[in-house]
Amino acid sequence: MLVSVVIPAWNAQLWLAETLGSVLAQTHKDLEIVLIDDGSSDHTATVADEVLRKGPFSYRILRQGNKGVSAARNRGWRAARGSWIQFLDADDLLHPRKIELQIGRSLEGDAVDVVYSDWQKLIWRSGTWQPEDALRTPTLGGDILADILRDQNFQQLGCLLFRADVLEAVGGFDESHQLVEDVEMCIKIAMNNGVFAKAHTDGPVSWYRDRPRSLSKLDQRQFVEACIRNARLVEQFVMLHPDAESRAIDAIIDVYYGAARYFADHDWKRFEEVIADIEKLRPAFVPSEPARLRLLSRITGYRTAEKLAGLYRRSKGVRRGILRDDLEKIDRSKL
Asked: Could you give the maximum distance between any two Cα atoms of the chain, in Å?
């Protein structure tokens, strides 16, 4: 069964050889590689060709102007010949048996559209990239839309394997979106009655390199707005399907609440808009945590409680700043 590994790459020459090495080491041998050079200004395409020509798999390197990762992935899977698609970012890694194990799971029992497994982050520590202690173990159950929205179930794109025709059915990635666009696509697949199945393994099947200058870290507001966008997509679906599980509403509110807490410290007008979204689903909303905010919300209402909590956080920040200045003055006086 042919699997196409689709790799979007932009100025990835520092990471690419190791990433491609993890693909060339795959034990599933019916494989092709489609790499999309998304307008790189470095030697990404040259590095890719040098590594791939030494490997056992057929490959293509497609070049385009810089259009973003969603457009690059779409071009890749649409050009692919495989009946299954493995997406892999240019700085991430696969376990040698990743594709073999997940193709095996796809052949068990009922038809499956997406296979997923456990994965792990790589963090920069002591001068090297090392696996973080926590293993990410997503589990999707009966209420799949709720599960996809939950933080603890986040499925980093490399840990997934997609049937090509399900990508066709939902139109692939939304090219106007560059953050949590992978979650958005999984939501669309679930809304299209796609079947997700877990291939259980003894450890991670993929590793995500958690770089400090990733887009989600550089623009936190944009990331928060992207999470709201995904939750709203689920909300719209649930409103049109009254038989949808109620847990989806809880998951939507959790996303909105996380966003509200962010905006409470950054944009009070936007905070009010998000709270209106929450109260539309749950009037007289009271957060479940933290405990002190929950208690205060029961007394004053959540809006007022959050405003008071924000004043407290800011006052603590001021006090810390004053203390830091005092310590610096003391240190200088010793010079």
From this structure: 75
